Amino acid sequence: MSLINRLERKFGRWAVPNITVLIIAGQVMLYVLSAMRGGQGLGGNVLAKLDLLPSAVMAGEIWRLVTFLFVPPPISPLFLVFYCMLFYRYGTALEQQWGVVRYNAFLLLGYLANLAAVFVAWGFGSDLLASNSFLYGTVFLAFARLFPSFVLNIFFILPIQIKWLALLAWIGYGYGLLTGSGMSRMLIVASVLNYLVFFGREHWRDFKSGQRRRSYQAKVVTASKQLAHQCLVCGLDRKTSPKTLFRYCSKCDGQCCYCPEHIHNHEHVVADEPDKAVIS
Question: What separation, in Å, do the N-terminal and C-terminal C-alpha atoms of the chain show?
Fold first, then answer.
């Protein structure tokens, strides 16, 4: 986090506050404009001039490098309202939690990674329109990481913690990496990159902590099995007689357990002659 602190001191005055509101405002404006000009919702030519198309950028339409960030998702007006409400909640929560500079850096890193992925894929012959959905999807994943217990009411009826929705998103990304096109794979990797930069160390610590916890639990289970109370004379054990008070003999070598009847009436186990007994 020292790097973020240095960036904040050096470039803090250039950070854009409430950037989530600006993005949402641009998306809503383009959605309305496209509906008015296209006559068929999002089927007009307005957005076609704003999407990120590598070949068009190389032909001189450099505005696409920025305008694709404000292209709205191809959904109905009702779902656009829900999309904007959720995106506003996620983005503003991250900005309040991290501060303006760090949130700007998160989006900027994802933006640059997406641009790099698009043009690398174009260099290999994949000249497809690039969506901003992967970039804004990482805002959702970051919010779910910081606020995993946040409850989202699906269709205002079904409450579900957002961490489970994030898990579904990760599964979807994994499926996209396995079955998607080259462009989709590049965008998924690029989008996950900014998330891993910000949360990769925490995930690694969680993984190591989980390993230590599982190792400790395995040792406890093994030790409890090894120390199972069972009388060496009659074979009575804790499972068959849970109320019996088993005791260990201090004169026997090792962990020798006996029931109350045989704790004072048994042959002591000697280390150098384990097969023989000394009468007590």
Answer: 68
Of the two residues 89 and 260, the one the predictor is more confident about is 89
- Fill in the amino acid letter for 147: F
Residue 159 zone, left/alpha/beta (φ > 0; ψ -120 to 50; rest):
beta
**Strand, coil or helix: what is 139?**
helix
Q: Please give the structure tokens belonging to residue 91.
A: 């983005």
Contact 181, 117 (CB under 8 A): no
Structure confidence at residue 279 (pLDDT): 40
How does DSSP assign 219-250, residue by residue? HHHHHHHHT--B-TTT--BTTT-TT---EE-S
Measured distance CA(149)–CA(78) in Å, rounded:
26
User: Are the beta carbons of 251 and 270 closer than 8 angstroms?
Assistant: no
Block residue for tokens 């990760």 = 170
Residues contacting residue 157 through CB under 8 Å, at least 6 positions apart: none
Q: What is the pLDDT of residue 3?
A: 61
Strongest mean pLDDT among 17-21, 54-58, 123-127, 181-185: 17-21
DSSP summary character for residue 130: B
Contact assessment for residue 35 and residue 28, using Cβ atoms and an 8 Å cutoff: no
Q: 106's torsion region: left (phi>0), alpha (psi -120 to 50) or beta?
A: alpha
Return the amino acid letter for 227: L
Alpha helix (H) residue ranges in 124-181: 133-146, 162-179
Residue 138, pLDDT above cutoff 50:
yes
Q: Which domains does the chain have, with CATH numbers?
A: 2-208 (1.20.1540.10), 228-280 (no CATH)
CB count within 10 Å of CB 19 equals 17
Portion of the chain with pLDDT greater than 70, in percent? 79
Q: How does pLDDT run across 10-21, given as a tens digit for each residue?
A: 766 777 889 999
Q: Estimate the crossing angle of helix 100-123 against helix 2-11, to 10 degrees.
A: 100
